[in-house]
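Quick one, T. Sequence first:
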Amino acid sequence: MKDTTNRVLTWNDLLEGDGYLTPSQKDSFERAIGMVLRCLDDTLGMPVEPHYGAFQFESFVDDLEPRFLHRPAPDELGSDAALAAYWVVRHIADGLLRSRVLH
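Structure tokens:
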């Protein structure tokens, strides 16, 4: 899908007709993954205040959002990587919380 300025709006728009990425698109995608991984490492490696009492996993994950979103980013792409990194963590955490409820 493209908007009125013919900009690409979805990942599917980037795929060639046979469903493959071009070599330059693959390189860009791999660089984006690297940016997200660095953001995960940097943010999750930051020291946190000691916690006393019962550990609330869901609250801990909720509290990660501002740590990801308010970290210094060199540009909009860095901010997008931080947001993607947070949603990776959120998705994993939600899966863990769902599995806990099911068991």
